[in-house]
């Protein structure tokens, strides 16, 4: 098995995991593994990335500069 180190976990999230682990009589590590397995097996994971950009013109410096200025006053 591999190890994962998670840094800078917000206190509120840490407390939620700790309370959930206590409720299920698990260690925090086992609770996190259970959460990850459940989410990934059930397909509940959704990417927050937008779909790839599709354009009809080449993406060059001029295109990027127009995109930066788009919608600005």
Broad shape: elongated
Note the main sheet.
none
N-to-C order of helices and strands? HHH
The helix count comes to: 3
| Total number of beta strands | 0
Average of pLDDT: 89
Helix content: 40-55%
What percent of residues are in strands?
under 5%
What would you report as the Rg, rounded to the nearest angstrom? 21 Å
Report the uncertain regions: none
* Estimated structural class: mainly alpha
N- to C-terminal distance: 54 Å
Description:
With 73 residues, the chain is mainly alpha-helical. The protein has a domain at 7-47. Helix content is 49%, strand content 0%. It has helices spanning 11-23, 28-41, 61-69. Helix 1 (11-23) packs across helix 2 (28-41). It starts with 10 loop residues before the first helix and ends with a helix.
What would a concise description of this structure say?
The chain has 73 residues and is mainly alpha-helical. It has three helices and no strands.
Provide the descriptors you would attach to this structure in a database record.
single chain; 73 residues; mainly alpha; 3 helices; 49% helix; elongated
Q: Could you give the topology of this structure?
A:
Elements (H helix, E strand, L loop, with lengths): L10 H13 L4 H14 L19 H9 L4
């Amino acid at each position: 098995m591999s190890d994962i180190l998670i840094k800078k976990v917000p206190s509120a999230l840490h407390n939620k995991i700790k309370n959930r682990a206590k409720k299920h009589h698990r260690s925090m590590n086992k609770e996190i593994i259970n959460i990850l397995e459940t989410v990934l097996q059930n397909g509940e994971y959704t990417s927050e990335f937008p779909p790839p950009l599709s354009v009809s013109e080449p993406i060059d410096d001029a295109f990027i500069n127009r995109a930066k200025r788009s919608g600005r006053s």
